[in-house]
Write a structure and sequence with these properties.
193 residues, mainly alpha, single chain
């Protein structure tokens, strides 16, 4: 296991040396198969140049969304066996229930929270979720997450790192719950004519 961690760290360090392009690559591949989240490059880049933090968040969001669509395509082509490589049967059944009940909102929730996003993008292909819900869910969830991190760096500077390390997971998870609840309630409300 240590060699895998060393290998991943080497890859991430190599991509970090490419700056913004490394960020874009990590954001894209993490959304479909890579185990390391783009936050580990977004945060240091934003700390180096805080005035570009929102720009980095935007690029990270767009690249991650494109990677999510690629993950969906992988799931569509490779099917359930590939999904089983990333998640247990119990988790796959849970993800399938979320997609049946919430559709693209499941992608938005995973995109925002620490839940493995790639499992949901691949599952979107396996469970035949349309590409539009994947795109909108990814833009919404990933955008909220990455802009939250960039905004914290703009407000707090280097002090944001400790705050994000400690509270980012719980905050984004709760934001995901609130977002999905709000959207579900909104969908169920009768529309005024």
């Amino acid at each position: 296991m240590l060699s895998l961690v060393t290998w991943l760290n080497t890859i991430v360090e190599g991509l970090a040396s490419y700056g913004i392009w490394g960020l874009v690559v990590v954001a894209f591949i993490e959304a479909s198969f890579f185990p390391v989240p783009p936050d580990i490059l977004l945060i240091p880049l934003a700390l180096i140049d805080p005035l570009k933090a929102l720009w980095y968040a935007l690029l990270c969001t767009l690249a991650s969304t494109a990677g999510g669509v690629f993950g969906q395509w992988i799931g569509l082509k490779a099917g359930r066996p590939l999904l089983e490589h990333f998640a247990s049967q119990r988790h796959i059944h849970l993800v399938e229930k979320w997609f049946k009940r919430y559709g693209g909102l499941a992608v938005a929730f995973a995109a925002l929270t620490p839940i493995p996003y790639k499992v949901f993008t691949i599952a979107a292909g396996v469970f035949k979720v349309g590409v539009r819900p994947v795109i909108w869910g990814s833009l919404l969830g990933r955008g909220l997450r990455f802009f939250f991190e960039a905004g914290m760096i703009l407000l707090m500077g280097k002090h944001a790192v400790d705050y994000l390390a400690r509270y980012s997971g719980p905050i984004t998870f709760m934001a995901g719950v609130i977002l999905v609840a709000w959207l579900v309630i909104r969908q169920r409300r009768p529309q005024a004519h």
